[in-house]
């Protein structure tokens, strides 16, 4: 496609309930939405999934905003015409900033596929019409409140529960959920909150029959994760550490991870995410689609990604109303029998609700060719 302009918006979208992880509590989702307008008059949409603070990763919204406006969007606008598969190469001279790159690549993908009349799911190679929906549950006031929150999601039909843990809120929280629901598929996410010195504590999670423990140690602890894996029966699943297909290959070679959480933003885009899924599929390593509290734009893209054959575990692809009372798309993802439908329309297959988009916009900028 030939890009005429790129619009960036910072949105503030209220969450239906506070979301607490080992990093802290969020009550508003601050996110960047990207619109890429082509010379043919087609608009493609993308989402930069950074958060307000650089706590999950070193990227954060206003850092992404700056690099997108100063370096990334101008590089794409300088191209005569660009195919989605060429975006990563056109942005390669900028080191890092993978979430920002992913959001721009997604907008170009959506624009190109809408132009062709082809769905993102079909382009990626999706083989399922719906995907099983797991839910990520934040840290609650106490274990009893956690059990009631989990019960609510189970009643809604979610097929897999993930609870956030942190030092001091790990064994008892997990024990309470497991005691209340002995048979549910359950996993925990530490978001980098421990060190290898906590191995004995983490081994106490083994008794709960968890599907996996997500990212117990820090992003660069590849060797320590391998050492920890030797001390746990619970499978380790890396999230933060898997920043690219290369990182995935290294972590698998070292035995640091036996399951991978694939997030397109974290790895620089959906095309790199597919490369990770492909390498895991070839190695017989299970993968699942993670989430970053996406709006309807990123959520539609995640549903398509999760519909690839490599995705053998339920992902954090929940219904829009798990986070938002109002979304920025006209048909937000809903839960049907524990599953979310994979959109089939051209591009991402969702239409933007312009009133909602405007209502949540706190800052916007248009860059022209
Ligand atoms: O670690 O998976 C994570 C949200 C923000 C940042 C990191 C994570 C998460 C989640 C929520 O767990 C996943 C979702 O979007 O449902
Ligand atoms: Mg995680």
How would you characterize the overall build of this protein?
The protein is α/β, with parallel strands linked by helices and 369 residues long. The chain is 36% helix and 21% strand. It has helices at residues 61-77, 84-90, 98-116, 120-124, 143-156, 171-180, 199-203, 222-231, 245-254, 264-267, 270-283, 296-306, 354-360, and strands at residues 3-21, 24-38, 43-48, 130-132, 134-137, 160-164, 186-189, 213-214, 236-238, 259-262, 287-289, 339-341, 361-368. The strands form 3 sheets. The chain has a 7-stranded parallel beta sheet. It has a 4-stranded antiparallel beta sheet with strand order 3-2-1-13. A two-stranded antiparallel ribbon has the order 4-12. The two termini are 13 Å apart. It binds 2-succinylbenzoate and magnesium ion. Residues 56, 136, 189, 191, 239, 290-293, 316, 318 line the site of 2-succinylbenzoate. Keywords: Lyase, Magnesium, Metal-binding.
């Amino acid at each position: 496609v030939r890009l005429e302009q790129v619009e960036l918006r910072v949105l503030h979208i209220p969450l239906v309930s506070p979301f607490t992880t080992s990093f802290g509590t969020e009550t508003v989702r601050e996110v960047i939405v990207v619109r890429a307008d082509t010379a043919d008059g087609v608009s493609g949409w993308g989402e930069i999934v950074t958060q307000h603070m650089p706590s999950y990763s070193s990227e954060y919204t206003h850092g992404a905003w700056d690099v997108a406006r100063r370096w990334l969007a101008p590089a794409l606008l300088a191209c005569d015409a660009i195919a989605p598969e060429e975006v990563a190469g056109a942005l390669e001279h900028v080191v890092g900033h993978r979430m920002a790159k992913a959001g721009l690549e997604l907008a170009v993908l959506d624009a190109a596929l809408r132009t062709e009349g082809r769905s993102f799911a079909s382009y990626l190679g999706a083989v399922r019409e719906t995907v099983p929906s797991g839910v990520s549950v934040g840290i609650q006031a106490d274990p009893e409140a956690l059990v009631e929150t989990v019960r609510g999601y189970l009643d809604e039909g979610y097929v897999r529960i993930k609870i956030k843990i942190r030092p001091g809120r790990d064994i008892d929280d997990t024990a309470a959920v497991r005691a209340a629901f002995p048979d549910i598929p359950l996993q925990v996410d530490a978001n980098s909150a421990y060190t290898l010195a906590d191995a004995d504590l983490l081994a106490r999670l083994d008794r709960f029959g968890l599907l996996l423990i997500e990212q117990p140690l820090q992003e660069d602890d590849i060797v320590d994760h391998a050492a920890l894996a030797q001390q746990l029966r619970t499978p380790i699943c890396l999230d933060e550490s898997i920043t690219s297909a290369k990182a995935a290959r290294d972590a698998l070679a070292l035995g640091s991870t036996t399951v991978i959480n694939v997030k397109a933003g974290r790895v620089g885009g959906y095309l790199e995410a597919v490369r990770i899924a492909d390498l895991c599929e070839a190695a017989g390593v299970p993968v699942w689609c993670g989430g970053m509290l996406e709006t309807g734009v990123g959520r539609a893209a995640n549903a398509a990604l999760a519909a690839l054959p490599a995705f053998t575990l339920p992902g954090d692809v929940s219904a829009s109303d798990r986070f938002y009372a109002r979304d920025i798309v006209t048909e937000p993802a809903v839960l049907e029998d524990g599953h979310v439908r994979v959109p089939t329309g051209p591009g991402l297959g969702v239409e933007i609700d312009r009133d909602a988009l405007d209502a949540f916009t706190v800052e916007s900028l248009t860059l022209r060719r």
